[in-house]
Amino acid sequence: MTSQTTLLADDASCPASRSLWQLGWQRLRRDRIGLTALWVVLAFVLLALAGWLGLAGSHWRDEVAKPNMPPALFKDYGPATVELTAADIDAAQQHNTSAADASAATGMSAEDDPLAADMAAAQTQAAKAAPLAVTPANDSLLILGSDSRGRDVLQKVIQGTATSLLVGLSGALLAILIGTLLGALSGYFGRRVDDLLMWFYSVFTSVPDMLLLLAFSAVMSRGIDTVIMVMALTSWTGTYRLMRAEFMKHKGREYVQAADAIGASHRSRMFRHILPNVTHLLLVQFSILTVALIKYEAILSFLGFGVGVSQTSWGAMLAEAPAELLQGYWWQMAAVTLFMSLLVTAFSMLTDSLRDALDPKVK
Amino acid sequence: MTQASPLLSVRNLGVSFRMESGEHFQALKGISFDIAANRTVALVGESGSGKSVTSMAIMRLLPENNTEITAGSEILFEGRNLLQADRRALRALRGRDIAMIFQDPMSSLNPVFTVGDQIIETLMLHTGMRRKAARQRAVALLKEVGLPEPDRKVDAYPHQLSGGQQQRVMIAMAIACEPKLLIADEPTTALDVTIQQQILQLLAELQKKHGMAVLFITHDLGLVGEFADEVIVMRHGEIREHGPLQQVFTQPQDAYTKALLNCRPQLDSRPARLAVIDDFLQDQPYQVPPQRERGYAPGDDIVLDVQGLCKSFESREGLFGKHVFHAVKDVSFQLARGKTLGIVGESGSGKTTVGLTLMRLHQASAGRALFNGQDILAMSPSEFHACKRRIQIIFQNPYASLNPRFTVEEILLEPMTLHAIGRDHAERKQLAAALLDRVGLPRRALQKYPHEFSGGQRQRIAIARCLTMKPDVLICDESVSALDVSVQAQVLNLLQDLQDECGLSYLFISHDLSVVKHISDQVMVMQHGQVVEQANADSLYANPQHPYTRQLLSAIPQGWPQQKGTQVA
Amino acid sequence: MLAYILRRLWQMVPTLFGVMLLLFILFNWVGGDPSYILAGKSFSAETLANIRHQLGLDKSLPEQFLIFVQQVLTLDFGTSWSTQQPVADILGSRIGPSLTLALPMLLVSLLLSVIIAAIVAYVRGSLTDRIVTLICTLAMSVSALVYIIAGQYWLAHKLGWFPILGWSDSLATNLWLYVPLPLLLGLVVSLAPDIRFYRSCFVEEMNHDYVRTARAKGLSEQVIMLKHVMRNALIPVVTSLMMSLPYLFLGALLLERFFGIPGMGNEVLNAVDRSDFPVIKAITIYVALATMLFNLLADIVYKLIDPRVQLK
After folding, report:
1. Which of A298, B182, B567, C179 is the most buried (most CB within 10 A)?
2. Half-sphere exposure of C98 (CA within 13 A, CB side)
């Protein structure tokens, strides 16, 4: 047997053995852009975590500043604000009451007015309650400015990051889980199972994503849970197709046939043998989906179908932008655009680098 | 003998590639050789020898972004240094003075253009012919390369032709402008042995007729014996031997060449052990081992008895129709204990399907397979599970038969866990380590991943995996076909040793007739799914009865004619 | 070929059935009782019962499904819940504006992205390539919303180069006056991902063996790119183009909403706002049908341009 042992004679100085994942990680480390992107994404995730746990951005609902104040550094770039004094308000009210008195004479009598009873009850209730102490608006400027209700844009944007990332990551995760399970069953078992699942797939793909999202949103109530579920239900199809093709391909490969020859069960072959060989593709797919879902969420929330009123997200913030822009208030939109672009760019570059590192092909 | 200045002169050619890790890999370490006009030079080497790199370097086809040509390298074609020629000069040269054909004709032809268009393109580019004239010339070329019905085939798309026909089209394209040098990079490796012979004959004829020089690149030294004038042997980026054909075959100077010549199984001798490269790298001269007798004896115990095995595949056609393809038709044979049955045939003969069906990786359509008296094809899956450890298989592709994500230890332990071999994890690890010793790999290999091993080493791991279950029958499905000749010899020796020690019975499936004769006791020849002839190895090769068997045997490349019967020391 | 088409049409039936089932489950089951919405302010029990009867909601679910199937087969979805117009009329009037915007946008986008992608693939690895790819990545990271809001604000409101929004009855006025700004903004959104995708198609083709053969024949890089590679790369490009055609019907949702273009996309948004189920259902069915038909068309075109394809 001397001939065989000389083959590995140089092994004495061999470096430690590396799995394919470790090799991929090495490749990623060498890619400076990819590594930077990874750090940026991780920073955002940490920020989002802080937002979820209430460590940052939790006071976004507090109206702490004067409305529509520009950011601290750009305070000369906002339109001049008009301060209303108490005198102005009194004068306006005077004018209104005189007009109201005039119409009261020609208004409806209490018997005709269907809401008269309810209004009277409401007024007596209101008289009972004491008004909340109003925190005086302070003059100091915020880093990113304030919105039309005097809320801190920075806090909002952080909270928005948390919401958007939560929706993006969990939606993507759920979509990948559904798509992988169904795709694995479809690709591995084929025949009837495949026919059934492909029918399912064709139904979901014959309706464009946006339309399906809207249809789901039309019947379900607003809120983060709905958004996550709706997104998962519409985006599993890409992963399904990918996994189906991969499982079909790998099933015919010799190492799976060898596992069959040894006596491995179906479950073992699917999840112990094939799945570890496709998880790198799933990671890339996860990255792509997260970006897509973050973008979709913004559009949905903008249109009014996404997160509820008690939550804020990037889309909800952008919904306030057109009205603000008309008056010249640009900073809320700028803040959202900055944060979102940074995250999406970093994620996209990370996706590219992951693909090159884990699934290398000739450039 | 004085020679006129050579057509192609390579001087100190060094090529290195920059890897993604930043390191440099030296593919060619300063090689020099000449090719004279009208001569056929064979460039022989195993994988990693640098032979393909050489041919691509001559044509300047190496990818520019990571290739570095060592300073001082020269490639002189008719006196001009190609390494310094500008792009336009190179383009004028390619296809007109130097032409090239590649290994895989299917992927080398553009799938969306007809073969005629692709030949016409070359003609119009280099000779300035008009389209009509070029088309006539294309038809004439196709006729010259032996393509049937050339006036119809000229409008065919590449995928409508067979592999051999595609290669003929590539050759037609290459000789269209009467090149002075034709580089053929492993043109027959992907083809069946009978087609291979036809293509080689075609090349030899064309070479004589057009007076071209041919640089023929191959890994198989046996191929070149019939038509090369000179032979160059390469290993690890260096030239080990260079000389006229007769001299290289009868009086090789270099130890590696001697090893290459000897480690290939021969049709006329069957040593007890095949030579391997290390045998020649030692100081003592190589001693030819004694011959080994093979054949079924009358009193042999039959371990596997296959009767009337059939397997057909269905596919859908038209609106409601079905198309049935009979891969295996009524195959019967017997495998004796401790012996080897070789199944031989070309692609499409159904030999691989026989092996896969016996393993129940395919569902047999009909027939029985009696293993120790029980019909394994009729058993339920759970009953067969218990039998699985007795019949195992080694696949052809060593790069695909091991799970890339498992360590060697996990690969070896999995079957043991499934069949409850060994009391606990520690004992199984011991067994795995012992098996690695048995197949000649270090124990360190347990922690490594498959991608860290070469093809031959991976086949050993696959063999070790089968041995964990102590099978009775081992099906070797083209298990050595993807390996280099020297590595093939090592693996064949290993299989032989295991058979002697453990009494394993082999079903050896291959298209390589010399290998099959070396390792088999009985041989079965298959064609189009049917058994054409079946006999003891020696008698079948000495006296083939069926015309197809005779055709197969005559197509085997013979090497240097006078080598028959001699072992070179 | 005919047998293939027939078989594909036959296979569409279960898919259409599935879409109907999905919509039915969504709108008739999950969606709950829409009678409150339609009753408006006066919701006495009598009115509600009346409405339910009119809509057929007092019948059992399987019966309702059969009615729905009948509606689909006759392509008569009844009347809109919010405007009382026949749904067919509404859709008929909306498709024109959608196409007026979407078709020119598709053509211009296709032309520009293929040309730029080809150029960039030709010089792959160079500085130009990397800069363009970087610009595309950055451009893709900005939400479409931002482009549209900012574009509308700057180009229309501030600089006054285009009308802020609007639509007219004349095709010429639309194409000249009202389409350019949304078209421009739509281009900005769609060019970047298209360029990246087409570039990767081209680069992948360039790595195939037949390119090596073409070089060995002495062809110049330009000829290889324009003749050999393009012809092969056309296949994924055309396939992707055919796949995106059904989206024409939906119109550019956001653009229509922002610019007040009375197209299908705007209609869908309005319908969802008002919980106008018949309109949503009708649009979804039509778009699903269009998608299936275009997929079939895509496969047939695929067969025409790729000689290797055998339709089964």
Report:
1. A298
2. 24
Give B443's DSSP letter. Answer: G
CATH number of residue B539's parent domain = 3.40.50.300
How many residues are recorded in chain A?
363
Whether A165 contacts A45, CB under 8 Å: yes
Coil, strand or helix: which one is B110? coil
Please give the Cα distance from A141 to B191 (Å, whole number).
79
Q: Burial letters for C66-95: b for 16+ Cβ neighbours within 10 Å, e otherwise?
A: ebbeebbeeeebbbbbbeeeebeebbeebb
CA distances from B348 to A277, B192, B327, C81 (A): 30, 10, 8, 66
Q: Inspect the interface and report whether the beta carbons of C283 and A299 lie closer than 8 Å.
A: no
Select from B117, B144, B178 the last residue of a domain. B178
Of A206, A208, A217, the CB nearest to C15: A206
Task: Write down the architecture of domain C88-305 according to CATH.
Answer: Orthogonal Bundle (1.10)
In DSSP terms, which residues pair with B309 in a beta bridge? B331
In a domain, B199, yes or no: no
Number of structural domains (chain B) is 2
Instruction: Walk me through the domains of chain A, giving residue ranges and CATH numbers.
Output: 19-60+151-358 (1.10.3720.10), 86-132 (no CATH)
Task: Give residue B169's domain range.
Answer: 108-178
User: Is B252 a member of any domain?
Assistant: no
Domain boundary among B127, B156, B178: B178
Does residue B121 lie within any of the structural domains? yes
Tokens representing B67 are 């290739």
Which strands form B530-536's sheet, in the order they lie side by side? B391-394, B473-477, B505-510, B340-344, B522-527, B530-536
* Position B163 in a domain: yes
Can you tell me the distance from the alpha carbon of A257 to that of B395, in angstroms, rounded to the nearest whole number? 9
Is pTM, for the whole model, over 0.80? yes
Chain C CA closest to residue B161 = C308
In A, minimum Cα distance to C292 occurs at A206
Distance between A339 CA and the closest CA of chain C, angstroms: 10
Alpha carbons B121 and B131: distance in angstroms, whole number: 9
For an interface test with B, the pick among A262, A272, A279 (most B C-beta atoms closer than 10 Å) comes out as A262
Residue A208 carries which DSSP code?
Answer: -
- Contact: B403, A277; criterion CB under 8 Å: yes
Contacts of A321 in chain C (CB under 8 A): 145, 149
For residue C152, the distance in angstroms to the closest alpha carbon of chain A comes to 9
How confident is the prediction along chain B (569 residues), in pLDDT tens digits per residue?
445 688 999 999 999 998 877 788 899 999 999 999 999 999 999 888 889 999 999 998 988 888 888 888 999 999 889 988 888 999 999 989 999 999 889 899 999 999 999 999 999 999 988 999 999 999 999 999 999 999 999 999 999 998 899 999 999 999 999 999 999 999 988 888 888 889 999 999 999 999 999 999 998 888 888 789 999 999 999 999 999 998 988 888 888 888 888 888 888 888 888 888 888 777 777 778 888 888 888 778 888 999 999 999 887 665 567 788 889 999 999 999 999 999 999 888 889 999 999 988 888 899 999 988 888 888 888 888 888 889 999 998 888 899 999 999 999 999 999 988 888 899 999 999 999 999 989 988 899 999 889 889 999 999 999 999 999 999 999 999 888 888 899 999 999 999 999 999 999 999 888 899 999 999 999 999 999 999 998 888 889 999 999 998 888 877 665 444 444 44
Distance CA B278, CA A9 (A): 13
Beta bridge partners of B311: B328
Decide if A229 touches C, using CB distance below 8 A.
no
Nearest-5° angle of CA A46, CA A52, CA A53?
90
Domain(s) labelled CATH 1.10.3720.10 in chain C stretch across 88-305
